[in-house]
Amino acid sequence: MSGYDATFSCQGVVELTTTGTNVLTRDEIVAMALTKGSSSIIPFSYSAPGAKALTGNCVITGYSESSNSEDEATYSLNFQVSGDITQASTATS
Question: Could you give the count of Cα atoms lying within 13 Å of 7 in the half-sphere of its Cβ?
């Protein structure tokens, strides 16, 4: 890593699916966003087809949610990387 701070964000609809069977509900996401101290550190992995995966740890720095009577609720999360990011030695398929 270059020594600069890294941030990223994500958006989704109502639930985050991590592996197809593990689902984070809205309440779990809000609880994660409110957590403080060492237990607030979340491991992450980012990959795209044909690229090397990036892994590291992060903390949630912002959470917002919006909905109306006709649409599903959506959320937006902001993250700050905590520590170094490492790159996998091989690309994902």
Answer: 8
Instruction: Report the C-alpha gap between 73 and 11 in whole angstroms.
Output: 11
- Flag whether 1 is in a domain: no
Residue 16 and residue 12: Cα distance in Å, rounded?
A: 7
Structural domain containing residue 74: 7-86
First-to-final CA distance of the chain: 24
Separation between Cα atoms, residue 23 and residue 31, nearest integer Å: 14
34-59 pLDDT, tens per residue?
888 888 898 888 888 889 988 999 99
List, in order, residues 6 or more apart from 46 with CB less than 8 Å away.
Answer: 8, 53, 54, 55
Within a domain: residue 71? yes
In a domain, 14, yes or no: yes
- Predicted TM-score of the model (pTM): 0.70
